[in-house]
Write a structure and sequence with these properties.
Blueprint lengths: L3 H12 L1 H12 L23 H12 L9 H16 L3 E10 L5 E11 L6 E7 L22 H19 L6 E7 L22 H11 L7 E7 L13 H6 L1 H13 L18 H6 L5 E4 L27 H17 L2
Parallel strand pairs: 3-4, 3-5, 5-6
Antiparallel strand pairs: 1-2, 2-4
Length: 343
Amino acid sequence: MRNVYIWRVMRTVGRHLPFCLSVFLLLSCGNTKKSTAETETVQKTVGPAFVADSAYLFCQQQCDFGPRTMNSEAHDRCGEWIAEKFRQYGMEVTLQRADLPGYDGTKLKSTNIIAAYRPELTPRLLLCAHWDSRPWADNDPDEANRRKPVMAANDGASGVAVMLEVARLLAADTLALGIDFICFDAEDWGTPQWTEDELSDAATWALGAQYWAAQYAATPSAPRYRYGILLDMVGGEGARFYQEQVSLYFAPDVVRRVWSAAQTVGYGSLFPKEEGGAITDDHVPLNRVAGIPCIDIIPYYPDCEASSFGPTWHTVSDDMQHIDSNTLKAVGQTVIQVLFSEQ
């Protein structure tokens, strides 16, 4: 059985060939080192309690619109709802709209939703996730489902749900730190598995993040970020978050900071200090193009035959029945610990 996690890495070679060759060569030469003698500073728990039931509800409310596939009514209505929720929590919201070409030439009406907490403060931190749904369940075990849209309760809605709950908590607890929340669009329109040449899909993934990173790099007055954290598929049953290799290459200090925070708040078992795979995701253009050290909190299921992203990845089963409040809690409380440790 092919390893789908490694398969997506192989698709990464098609999407970002020069980058991937350089990363893997450098990794093989030992340029990214993992110290076995790392000492950790004992931290105390800080910040409010992350409310998993609230995040679960935010996840459900996104799914209530239906699959948020590009150019659909459900997509547009959900985007308006997300923006309004951030405004409700006192955020300054900007909508970055762009027409972006899909892998097949389809014009994708994309909207990155940017919500600023305390926009007057610099430097800032960046929290991000994608909010669109995969148009095709191309990894579904049932071939009859592979052209159907994905509900994307986990692969999309969960990351946004965690950010919305963090924003809700910040509205009631002033933090002396500037934070930008970015919901990236058009992440999941990447070349489907049924195409004849799977390695010809360069740049077809993470389109909204690519656009944002290019605009950011071209704007000298754009805010400076200490680092960023990407949340992707952070609500699945049985999820464990290994240390993703691209994150380790570009931002090893941020990886250590986040995994230490998970240990502090009691979720070290869900954040093992072991390496996972190397993934093309929204954090790649943020690191490569925008120059922001950004890590990816993304699950790794080493023993799952269907996909090392988990059994529901790019299937019609990515629905609310397979969202686990404990997983949302583990990720959300870890993020809270990181943010409130920055003060």
